[in-house]
UniProtKB/TrEMBL annotation:
Binds 1 [4Fe-4S] cluster per subunit. PANTHER family: QUINOLINATE SYNTHASE, CHLOROPLASTIC (PTHR30573:SF0), QUINOLINATE SYNTHETASE A (PTHR30573). Iminosuccinate binds at H35, S52, Y123, I124, N125, S140, H209, P210, E211, T226. It is an enzyme of class 2 (transferase). It catalyses: iminosuccinate + dihydroxyacetone phosphate = quinolinate + phosphate + 2 H2O + H(+). Pathway: Cofactor biosynthesis; NAD(+) biosynthesis; quinolinate from iminoaspartate: step 1/1. Keywords: 4Fe-4S, Cytoplasm, Iron, Iron-sulfur, Metal-binding, Pyridine nucleotide biosynthesis, Transferase. [4Fe-4S] cluster binds at C97, C183, C276. InterPro entries: NadA (IPR003473), NadA_sf (IPR036094), Quinolinate_synth_type2 (IPR023066). Belongs to the quinolinate synthase family. Type 2 subfamily. The gene is nadA. This is Quinolinate synthase. Catalyzes the condensation of iminoaspartate with dihydroxyacetone phosphate to form quinolinate.
Length: 320
């Protein structure tokens, strides 16, 4: 905070960042795409807010010359895969993903080679290299729908999230070979503390993202992607919710259902571990500087991009 104030005093940052960003959007013909887990200021300045599937569709459809992706690295990579001729900016290149990092390309290549008869369905929360080794990409919004379209006799590898894969298996009755990756945020929620919250808030509905552990999901009255959770809380007659996903989504929940109360599901320890440290690396200041300086830019080899594009296109076709 002190560094930001000093930068403003020294003239490197404008006093009104919102207005400056709007001016740069016009100058660059830029669009800002933001995930629900971003800070409220970034959500409020974004042209489009969504979950991974919604953001992939928005990236595929934009007419902008510059895409500023307020999210994490794999999301910006996805935008570049779909838009090779556009400048794709990520406010902080260190905004990675623990789930994507849990699936190293060399190890996954060996895993895939050991099961050559398997179709590979990869959760979009993975690197471009993993996408390039996949047959179909999915998101938490469409994973069940996509798996249901695969012939039952076709064996499937599901990567990289074991919790989402386990949930999809339960919903579809399919036996899949799971890569043992996970998200540090969604694995940190405390079943014990959620039970305590349900005791002290007996009218509250627990809702959860399928990346959570089974022990957490069994206490949820509704399980869905970030977008699905947002839609559900608007339609549900309940007035109070315990939300087991990254708490950045609560900003949109409060805006769209202002008369309702949202309680972030707590981690086991007394920490902010339920907040994604990678998502929170992006700030309004970094977003402005990325647009002003046209960097950091997302790049990749054309071979990787083309290989990753095919399973992305299959996902978009299968999730209509």
């Amino acid at each position: 905070m002190f560094t930001t104030k000093l930068a403003r005093l020294q003239g490197t940052l404008p006093l009104d960042l919102f207005a400056a960003i709007e001016d740069l959007k016009t100058e660059l013909n830029a669009v800002i795409l933001a995930h629900y887990y971003q800070d409220p200021d970034i959500q409020d300045i974004a042209d489009f807010i969504g979950d991974s599937l919604q953001l992939a569709r928005a990236a595929a459809q934009t007419n902008a010359d510059v895409i500023v992706f307020a999210g994490v690295h794999f999301m910006a990579e996805t935008a570049k895969i779909l838009n090779p001729d556009k400048l794709v900016l990520l406010p902080d290149l260190n905004a990675g993903c623990s789930l994507a990092d849990s699936c190293p390309p060399d190890q996954f290549a060996a895993f895939k080679a050991a099961h050559p008869d398997h179709l590979v369905i990869s959760y979009i929360n993975c690197s471009a290299e993993i996408k390039a080794m996949s047959d179909i990409i999915c998101t938490s919004s469409n994973a069940v729908k996509i798996v249901q379209q695969i012939p039952k006799e076709q064996p499937i590898i599901f990567a990289p999230d074991r919790n989402l894969g386990r949930y999809v298996m339960q919903q579809t009755g399919r036996d899949m070979l799971l890569w043992q990756g996970s998200c540090v945020v969604h694995e940190t929620f405390s079943e014990r503390k959620i039970v305590e919250l349900k005791t002290t808030h007996p009218e509250a509905e627990a809702i959860a993202h399928p990346e959570c552990e089974t022990s957490v999901l069994r206490h949820a009255s509704y399980i869905g992607s970030t977008a699905a959770l947002l839609n559900y809380c608007q339609k549900s007659p309940s007035h109070e919710f315990i939300v087991a996903t990254e708490p950045g989504i609560i900003h949109q929940m409060q805006k769209l259902a202002p008369g309702k109360h949202f309680i972030p599901a707590p981690p086991e320890n007394n920490c902010n571990c339920n907040e994604c440290p990678f998502m929170r690396l992006n700030t309004l200041e970094k977003l402005y500087l990325a647009m002003k300086n046209r960097t950091p830019e997302i790049t990749m080899s054309e071979d990787i991009r083309l290989a990753a594009l095919k399973p992305m296109q299959r996902m978009l076709e299968m999730s209509v």
